[in-house]
């Protein structure tokens, strides 16, 4: 009985160390801003829409969805379809309607790649 309690105590110690190291790894990778979290310069149209000259792809997508939901621009009959107002048309290539899954594709050209 004593051996199993010692074994579990050691396992708990290893789990605590693993959790601490994975948490520090996650925070370090987010601090670098790589991939989708990388802050990039955006086009003037998207910058005007977001109110910032730089943004990450995830922030731009989140703010776009916040705008869509706040202004109730989803088609009530088909929630996957977005009905673009004049402000959204400036960033979505002048389209009147956009599919939910097209948004990231249409936002992509607005991010200026730096060398």
TrEMBL record:
CDD domains per UniProt: SWIB-MDM2_like (cd10567)
Matches recorded under SUPFAM superfamilies: SWIB/MDM2 domain
Pfam families linked: SWIB
Location of the DM2 domain: 35-113
InterPro entries per record: SWIB_domain (IPR019835), SWIB_MDM2_dom_sf (IPR036885), SWIB_MDM2_domain (IPR003121)
Descriptive protein name: Upstream activation factor subunit spp27-like
Species, as recorded: Durio zibethinus (Durian)
Gene: LOC111289243
């Amino acid at each position: 009985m004593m051996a199993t309690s010692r074994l579990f105590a050691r396992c708990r110690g290893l789990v605590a160390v693993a959790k601490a190291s994975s948490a520090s790894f996650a925070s370090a990778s987010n601090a670098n801003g790589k991939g989708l979290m990388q802050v990039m310069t955006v086009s003037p149209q998207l910058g005007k829409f977001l109110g910032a000259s730089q943004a990450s792809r995830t922030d731009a997508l989140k703010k776009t969805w916040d705008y869509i939901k706040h202004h109730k621009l989803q088609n009530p009959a088909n929630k996957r379809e977005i009905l673009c107002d004049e402000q959204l048309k400036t960033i979505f290539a002048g389209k009147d309607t956009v599919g939910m899954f097209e948004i990231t594709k249409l936002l992509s050209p607005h991010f200026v790649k730096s060398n």
